[in-house]
TrEMBL record:
KW Zinc (keyword) present: yes
Domain of life: Eukaryota
CDD domains: Bbox2
Entry-linked PANTHER family: BONUS, ISOFORM C-RELATED (PTHR25462), MEIOTIC P26, ISOFORM F (PTHR25462:SF296)
PROSITE patterns named in the record: ZF_BBOX
Name assigned to this protein: B box-type domain-containing protein
GO MF annotation list: zinc ion binding
Keyword line: Coiled coil, Metal-binding, Zinc, Zinc-finger
Segments forming a coiled coil: 153-184
Domain B box-type: 2-52, 62-104
Length: 548
């Protein structure tokens, strides 16, 4: 590891160059030249690169990124059934039957606003507050014991003065007993204070770590850290409850006898101690999982018509997608990509070299990709400033497009699908049937496609093996909800149906009475509260509220 003042990549090349920035995803310090190189790689554009002077690298980040079972694999998936982070290799072995295994960037989306983040921080704060109160209580008890000793000493002296020399021996015994009790309880309480301080410091360290990650870390790091700290917080809760139950309010009292007989020295008085439970309480709060844990059991019951998005004149559209900052992208018969702010208000349009058809947003990034059938190409879009980026030749008439975690899948003419990495490099070719694939959805968890061609909806594996095929009406869009159910339009039947991932169950969700008329492209918004449908033969955009 390089020193705090030098660039890590340059140090590996035996160069000593001062670092000015820090990438929290790579966990490396970077010099200006390496920062520029970092920004040029598309796979690294989503990384958090921050000013080195604004962070404290001495705060430990304990969140793991590597799978314990598969040391060469990243922990990049989250199983909602088991509530654990896992790697790609774990899925077919440990989570094959799980209903929902999500890519980590989906599961950790908005994690800083999640119930898990709130609960972990609240629990840490509650534990710290309780420990501080307990520490104050112990200190108060020590002070009270010290004051009590002074008072009792005076009481003993008053009795002593009345009994003169006859009580000298008894006085010594009582003083000795008092000191012994004092020492015993001081020792116990000081040991309790040390244990409290140890747990308190540990929790403060975790608090600093999460605060650091909140400001400077990636969602993946926060997600890892939160799940890693759940068990340690539960252990801290057990320790705090144990410390509270073993702590007692200790007072020493002296019972002075008013009537003293010379022959009844035992009536001189005796010391007594009162032990009662500590008044500090800690109410354990069950840590919640991230919001997806409750979302996985939600099921869309019905849709209710919300509104119609006012489209720009002549904006007849094929397909749509929604960016991470809630902007709606619409492809068109024209060589344009239309942009609507907040999914409702026209903002701008991007001039393309030819008409576009399919569009998809790469999850967790500020990048989108559209298909250009006439040019047999795909066009990358920078959604941060709504400008064109690279254009890549795929060498076949392409229509539908979808993405996995680190792959782009382009479908089109004669059942052709080409697989690309997120930089646009073509990796492989898949063939499925002979129909043109106009819409395409990829299930990353089960590694299968849902492709729409004319009058057909097919599910098939990565190698092109057909899983099942279903007759449908015409050509229309396909999308998935967060449970993995498939929604597809009936162009000639003017309806939208929902199908289970295995193709066994199918039900009509929207029909002509609900305002559906020759639907085409469709998609859910980012939080799955609304369904957007290109309607009325490409000419309008209908919005429906999802009711759970």
């Amino acid at each position: 590891m390089a020193t705090a003042s030098f660039c890590d990549p340059c140090t590996k090349a035996n160069l000593s160059v001062s670092a000015t920035r820090y990438c929290s995803d790579c966990e490396e310090r970077l010099c200006p030249a390496c920062v520029e190189s970092h920004a040029r790689f598309k796979a690294l554009t989503s990384h958090h690169v921050i000013d080195l002077s604004s962070i404290d690298l001495n705060i430990p980040v304990s969140a793991k990124k590597i799978c314990n079972l598969h040391p060469d694999m990243l922990l990049d998936y989250y199983c909602t059934d088991h509530g654990i982070v896992c790697c790609r290799a774990c899925i077919p072995k440990e989570h094959r039957k799980c209903e929902k295994v999500l890519p980590l960037e989906h599961a950790s989306k908005d994690v800083k606003k999640s119930a898990l983040f709130t609960d972990v921080m609240q629990d840490i704060n509650q534990l710290i507050t309780t420990l501080k109160h307990l520490q104050d209580n112990r200190e108060s008890n020590l002070q009270r014991l010290s004051k009590t000793k002074s008072v009792i000493t005076e009481q003993i002296s008053e009795v002593k003065s009345r009994l003169l020399k006859q009580i000298d021996d008894l006085e010594r015994d009582l003083q000795s007993e008092l000191s012994s009790l004092q020492r015993k309880h001081e020792t116990e309480i000081n040991m309790q204070k040390e244990e409290i301080t140890k747990v308190l410091n540990s929790l403060k360290t975790k608090q600093k770590e999460i605060d650091f990650l909140k400001d400077h870390g990636s969602n993946n790091q926060i997600f890892h850290a939160l799940h890693q700290h759940v068990s340690s917080i539960k252990s801290a809760e057990v320790n705090v409850q144990k410390m509270i139950s073993s702590s007692h309010e200790i007072d020493i009292a002296f019972d002075a006898k008013k009537a003293i007989r010379m022959i009844r020295i035992d009536l001189f008085g005796q010391l007594s101690e009162t032990v009662k439970p500590c008044q500090i309480q800690y109410n354990s709060k069950k840590i919640q999982q991230a919001q997806i844990m409750t979302e996985k059991i939600k099921r869309i019951v019905k849709f209710e018509k919300d509104t119609e998005v006012k489209l720009k004149a002549g904006c007849d559209s094929f397909e749509l997608a929604i960016t991470v900052d809630n902007k709606l992208l619409l492809t068109s018969f024209k060589p344009k990509l239309y942009v609507y702010r907040d999914c409702k208000d026209y903002e701008t349009e991007i001039i393309l070299s030819s008409p576009s058809y399919g569009v998809v947003v790469i999850p967790g990034t500020e990048r989108a990709v559209v298909t250009l059938p006439d040019e047999e190409s795909i066009q990358f879009i920078n959604t941060a400033n709504m400008t064109k980026d690279d254009k890549v030749k795929v060498s076949f008439t392409c229509y539908g497009i979808t993405v996995g975690r680190d792959r782009i899948y382009v479908g089109g003419k004669d059942g052709t699908i080409k697989v690309l990495d997120t930089n646009g490099t073509i990796l492989k070719l898949i063939k499925q049937g002979s129909g043109d694939i106009t819409f395409l959805v990829y299930d990353d968890c089960h590694e299968q496609f849902f492709g729409r061609s004319h009058n057909k909806l097919q599910c098939f594996k990565l190698d092109g093996t057909l899983v099942y095929s279903k007759d449908v009406s015409g050509t229309a869009g396909v999308t998935r909800d967060r449970q993995g159910n498939i929604y597809y339009g009936g162009y000639y039947t003017s309806n939208i149906q929902r199908m289970s991932p295995d193709g066994e169950n199918c039900e009509e969700m929207l029909k002509e009475d609900d305002g559906i008329d020759s639907p085409y492209g469709m998609c859910f918004n980012n939080d799955f509260t609304k369904l957007f449908v290109i309607n009325n033969s490409y000419t309008s955009l209908s919005v429906y509220n999802c009711r759970y």
